[in-house]
Amino acid sequence: MFKLSEKILLLCVGEAGDTVQFAEYIQKNVQLYKMRNGYELSPAAAANFTRKNLADYLRSRTPYHVNLLLAGYDETDGPGLYYMDYLSALAKAPFAAHGYGAFLTLSILDRYYRPDLTREEAVDLLKKCLEELNKRFILNLPSFTVRLIDKDGIHDMEKLPVGRK
Amino acid sequence: MALQDVCGLLEPPLFPQWTAPLSQSFMPEDSTHLFGGGIYGEAFSSWVPRRSGLNPLEFYMPISEYITKSPINFGQTPQSSNLLDVDHMHPTLPYISQSGALPFTLSHGTTTLGFAFQGGVIAAADTRSSCAGKVACPASPKVLPIHSHLVGTTSGTSADCALWKRILARELRLYQLRHRRRLSTGGAAKLLSHMLHPFKGTELCVAATLCGWDGDEDQDNEQPMTERYANTTLTSKSSSQSAASSGLSGVRGPRVVYVCSDGLRLQGALFSVGSGSPYAYSILDGGVRWGMSAQEAAAVAREAVYRATYRDAYSGNNVDLYHVTAKGWRRRERENLKEEYYREKERREQNNTGEKSIHSIK
Questions:
Q1: Number of domains forming the structure of chain B
Q2: CA of B16, closest CA in chain A: separation in Å?
Q3: Is residue B142 part of a domain?
């Protein structure tokens, strides 16, 4: 999880070194934009900038094999989640997941997600997803870091230990 | 060259645009010294040195032919005519998805480990260099000191590790001369990781654990080292907690960072690398505590390497042990594990005859 700005987080998974290299590159460039222009990039702009970079590197000698989720809060547009894969396909989505866990959790999110969820309901939905992973996923993932972005910025939530039940 | 740099005789280095992809901003310097002259020197000398500013990232872009062609043919094929055709302004590494023509198998077997505790950092490694199933060198040093307070264990291809350690040592020394302070272990790890990144996808294989003590110069009073410093993660931006703690305890204390040529860079309290690492991990996980004494730590490290050499064919011969403290690194006498093996064998036999057990342990 990389903090791009006060209200934007970038989650990056994929090949070993590529994740950190690419994510830090994007992170520093977003911060540079803020230094040069005095205001921060919006989540939509940051997502498109990331996508452009990923696409440029895709057909170079050194493509980055990373899957990304960009989450941010915009003053005018509200919260936004952007799904990006290693072929630099970009989609704004209400919910998203990468990896093998996606197979297990996307249907739960399909079933229970509503655009007008309250914060507690959203956390419960997340816990539901993690319980399913605990039950059916082959790797044991003991705990997850959870962060919440709202109009006041990024908030660390308590680490969710899976398998409390 | 370093002196010119430091004295500021040259104009300030104009760092190329960091946002541009690497290939577009390659600026060669007179780098005959890099490869020691010879055919490499001829290759580079035809270029005009554009800038004197150094950028360690672009410095080491190899010529693409050197990667695809077999190293045995280096002296024989007429390289100069081919090279002039290559677009030197945009050299790129060929993307190698499978291994090219290698004249010999590369060596990767080893056991190295490094961990931090209250009394500093212990770095230990075996000394066997294997190649194509035979022992190429029974007494190779795998723990290389980089500067007075930083030691690096090497795993992977021996030649690559030795070269990159030297390059890292030079860059750290330059940093120290320019900025009048030593670069921290985390910073050195990041520098090494970025220097290795252009070679991703090639046969370069370096897996190093940098073990060092970060501290201010000329500071004699030793503050008690908190375990939290050794365990803070590198991505401290995302967690305000760790930033606060590292600020409180200052930028001092033992630090272990793992860097590998895939681009992975991990900060932690304990690492073991190499083919013998699983065996070493099992000993270390049971024996390493933050509050242990230096003797205990050295004993555990030695035992872990010994157990790994016992089980792993590619590790063996001697064990090297380095202990890094605030005052710098100290090296223990290289110890031949053959003695330890026979001592243990005797102990087992004594136990056997003493207990008269049914199970026989040969």
A1: 1
A2: 15
A3: yes
Q: Provide the ipTM.
A: 0.71
| Under 8 Å between Cβ of A66 and A15 | yes
Question: In 10 A of CB B247, how many CB atoms?
Answer: 10
Residue B207 within any structural domain of the chain? yes
Residue B344's φ and ψ, nearest 5 degrees, are -65, -40
**B200:A2 CB<8 A:** no
Any chain B CB within 8 A of the CB of A62? yes
pLDDT tens track for A78-119: 999 999 999 999 999 999 999 888 888 898 898 899 999 999
What residues make up the domain containing B121? 105-215+252-336
B359 found inside a domain: no
DSSP classification of residue B12: P
User: Does any CB of chain B come closer than 8 Å to the CB of residue A157?
Assistant: no
* B179: contact with A, CB 8 A cutoff: no
Single pTM value for the model: 0.67
Closest partner residue to B263 among A21, A28, A60, by Cβ?
A: A21
A-chain residue closest to B261, CA distance: A17
- Measured CA angle at B68 (ends B66, B70), to 5 deg: 75
Cβ distance A2 to B93 less than 8 Å, yes or no, reads no
The strand pairing partners of B271, in sequence order, are B114
What is chain B's Cα-based Rg?
A: 23
- In Å, what is the CA distance from A127 to each residue of A72, A109, A116, A159, B83? 21, 11, 18, 11, 59
CA max distance for chain A: 50
Determine the Cα–Cα distance for residues A114 and A40; give it in Å rounded to an integer: 29
pLDDT tens digits, one per residue of B92-120: 444 433 334 444 444 468 889 999 999 89
B110 among known catalytic residues? yes
CA dist., res. B101 & res. B78, Å (int) = 19
For residue B278, what is the domain's CATH number? 3.60.20.10
Query: Domain for residue B6, yes or no?
Result: no
Question: What token pair was written down for B240?
Answer: 């305000």
Nearest residue in chain B measured CA to CA from A9: B238
Give the per-residue pLDDT at B93.
44
pLDDT class for B150, splitting at 50, 70, 90? very high
